[in-house]
Amino acid sequence: MSEPAGELILYRTEDGRNQIQMRAVGGTVWLTQAQMAELFDTSVQNINKRIQTILEDGELSEATINSELIVRREGDREVRREVRVYNLDMILAVGYRVRSPRGIQFRQWANTTLREYLVKGFVLNDERLKDPGGFDYFDELLERIREIRASEKRFYQKVRDVFVATSADYDSGSETARTFFATIQNKLIYAVTGKSAAELIVDRADPGKPNMGLKTWKGSRVRRADVTVAKNYLDSDEISMLNMLTTQFLDFAELRARRRQQITMAQWVTATDTFIAMNDLKVLPGTGRVSREAAEAICRDRFTDFETQRQALESARADAEAAREIRKLAQAEGHLDALGELETATEDLEDR
Q1: Which residues lie closer than 8 Å to 161 by C-beta, 6 or more apart?
Q2: Which of 40, 176, 254, 278 is most solvent-facing, going by the fewest CB within 10 Å?
Q3: DSSP state of 71
Q4: pTM across the whole model
Q5: DSSP state of 185
Q6: CA angle (13, 19, 23) in 5-degree steps
Q7: 215 within 8 A of 246, measured Cβ to Cβ
C-alpha cells in the first residue's frame, strides 16, 4: 500500500470534537499513530508504546502494519514521506489497552457498523428509515437501489438465475439463451422510449451536439465504447422510469421462480410483453427497424466525425491560450508595440 488507495470512511467521535478519516483497503481500515492518538484522545508516544507491547507479546504480528506515501505541500516544495499505518486489528488492540471512553465508543462502532460496511459494502439504520420524522431519505434510498439493481451486470445475473430455475427448455449454449438477455433489455427500453436500443442510438447519436448527445458516460470524456450504449442517451426521467420498470420486471420474474412455475423461453418472451402491456406501456413488435450491427457501424462513423471536431476545438483553444500567455509576457516586459499581429491572431482563434 505504498500510495493512498481505497475509499475514505469518516468517523466522528461521540463528543463531536474530532473527525477521523480512515482509508478502507483490502477489507480493513488503516490509521497512522498520530490518527490513533487523536482517535483515543492520548499521545503518539503512548500509542507507540502500546503497539510495541502488542507486537512483543505476540498478540498481533507485523502483518497488521503497512506503509503509505503521504504527499504534502510545504512552502514551494512538494514533500513525500513514507509513514507507517496500522490495520483495524491493531487499532482495536490499541483501543483495548488505552482504556479510555473514546476507545470503548470506537470498539462498539467498529465491531458493528464498520465491520458490516467492510463485509457488505453498506450499512442501514433500519429504525431511522422506518420512522419518517424529520428529513426522510427513504425515497432517495429506493431510487439508488433501483439504479444498482437495474445495472447491466446485476440485471443479467438475476435474469439468468431466474431463467435457469424456471425455463423448461433453458440451454446456456443455445442461440435463444445467448440473445434472450438483449431481447428483454430491448423490450424494456422500447417501453420507456418508444424505440429499440439500436433505434435509440441512431436517433440520438449526433456528432454536432456536446458529448455527441450522451447524457452519461464513464470517465472524464466520451469515448468510442460509450456511444454504442443505449442507456447513455437517456435523460434522468427516462433512466428513473427504466430503473423502476426493470426492478418491477425482476420482482415479477422472481415471483414466478418462487412459485416454481416452469415455462419455456418462448413463453418468457410472451410473459414479458404481457408485463409491459399491464403497465400501459408500448410493446416492441419484433426486434425493431434497426439491427444492432447497423447501429454500431453508424455510431462508429459518427464518433469519428465527433472526435475530429473535438480535436480541432481543443487545438484551437490551446492555440488561443498560448497566444494569451505570450501577450501577458509581452505586457509584463513592456513590448506592447510588437503585439499588433499577435492580438489579431488571438481574436481569430477565439472566434473559432
Answers
A1: 257
A2: 278
A3: E
A4: 0.59
A5: H
A6: 110
A7: no
